[in-house]
Design goal:
InterPro entries: MFS (IPR011701), MFS_dom (IPR020846), MFS_trans_sf (IPR036259), MFS_Transporters (IPR050171). It is found in: Cell membrane. It holds the Pfam family MFS_1. Helix content is 81%, strand content 0%. The protein is built from 16 helices and no strands.
């Protein structure tokens, strides 16, 4: 009898709490962050570059601190850091609502980024701790679905709240993190690490782990591609259908993830190994971006976005599952923290490269240039992952080693 058959997947109170809190966090984030540009640029007449600096510093702060947040979780446990992060983000978002000048808004956004850096990797470590190895891909998929639901509902609530005022929207979004904090305080157990890592020993172990280091660095290519929905794909959609195209674009991507991610993952995990699924998913993302260059209508572009979404919705749970598999006992948080490097580097480079490639293609009169380049990055990343994962043990091998 397999481990999966012996232990059916039934959600515990801690798992329900993590799923609910993830929905609240994503919903609260997308209820206010898109409104920052609307309020301060369109409403108050600030320079767009100023607001771009604010949003960029928040992301940089969060991604930078995430690396260390995971290491701290290995020392004191995930729960205290997640709760502290939620409370700090509450204060940061509420403070945004009262910002009347750029220095105050920058300080508030950095505070919000600190909160995110404290709960990001520890949240993934907590999911790993409360979920059996054979069920982790499904648990990560469910939390991803809850996040996508938040990404869909958050902007709708934010659009309604902005009519009342940005300050009200910011206070409401901050309060959502307070609610998430309460949910996790009640449902998530405080599990202290059996062997607490000292100082930055966990991060050092992750950095020196040749297999995991390869895995993390190759994934930079994927995250470069994943940012293109916000850059190259959005620019293409607007050129084909005008500014109103962004709503259907994001709605389709998030909606497909909500409806299909879990059943698609269940279908795939019965038939192929996790590492094979990850390679195939990244290849799908790259090929879909290449096809977008051939899209002549908005409908054709949406069809390509649907294919793109099928790939991205498989990457998150498989990547997180492999990260948990590679992490030694007691160092899960450090490994999830170190893995944030791929998102930080890939996201930063992707935001820059996407726009540069679009401009270069237009200047050279070769509109296919950005899309063929992105497809090439996808193919190279898939090949790189196949190489990086060849020494990664299967779940069955890990279970036999731990038996």
């Amino acid at each position: 009898m397999t481990a999966s058959a012996a232990a059916p997947f039934r959600l515990s109170a801690a798992q329900y709490g993590l799923i609910a809190a993830n929905f609240l966090m994503w919903g609260g984030f997308f209820a206010v962050i898109p409104l920052v540009t609307v309020h301060f640029v369109d409403g108050l007449g600030w320079a767009a570059a100023s607001v771009g600096l604010v949003l960029g510093l928040r992301q940089l702060t969060q991604q930078g601190l995430t690396v260390f947040g995971g290491a701290w979780a290995d020392r004191i446990g995930a729960k205290p850091l997640i709760l502290a992060g939620c409370l700090i983000r509450t204060l940061g978002f509420i403070w945004m609502g009262f910002a009347g000048n750029l220095p105050v808004l920058l300080a508030a956004s950095i505070l919000a980024g600190i909160g995110g850096g404290l709960f990001d990797a520890p949240k993934n470590a907590a999911i790993t701790t409360v979920t059996a190895p054979e069920h982790r891909a499904r648990m990560f998929s469910l939390t991803s679905i809850s996040g996508n639901l938040g990404m869909v509902t958050g902007p709708l609530i934010g659009a309604w709240l902005i009519g009342v005022g940005f300050r009200t929207a910011a206070v409401a979004a901050g309060s959502v993190y307070l609610l998430a904090c309460a949910v996790l305080a009640l449902t998530l157990p405080h599990i202290r690490p059996e062997r607490a890592a000292s100082g930055l020993a966990g991060l050092r172990a992750a950095a020196l782990d040749r297999r995991f280091r390869r895995f993390t660095l190759v994934l930079v290519g994927y995250f470069l591609l994943s940012t293109q929905l916000n850059v190259a794909v959005t620019l293409k959609a607007v050129s084909l259908a005008g500014p109103g195209a962004t709503g259907p674009l994001y709605g389709l991507s998030a909606g497909l993830a909500v409806v299909l991610q879990y059943p698609l993952l269940r279908f795939v995990e019965r038939r192929v190994r996790t590492r094979v699924a990850l390679v195939a998913a990244v290849l799908t993302v790259g090929l879909s971006l290449g096809l977008m260059g051939l899209a002549a209508t908005f409908g054709q572009l949406l069809a390509c976005v649907a294919l793109y979404s099928l790939g991205t919705m498989l990457v998150y749970p498989t990547q997180q599952t492999l990260t948990a598999r590679l992490a030694p006992p007691g160092l899960t948080g450090s490994y999830f923290g170190f893995s944030a490097i791929s998102l930080g580097l890939g996201g930063a480079v992707g935001n820059l490269v996407g726009g540069v490639l679009i401009d270069l293609g237009a200047r050279l009169g070769v509109p296919l240039l950005p899309w063929l380049t992105l497809m090439g990055v996808g193919v190279l990343t898939a090949l790189g992952l196949r190489w990086a994962l060849k020494e990664v043990p299967t779940r069955e091998q890990v279970e036999r080693a731990q038996a």
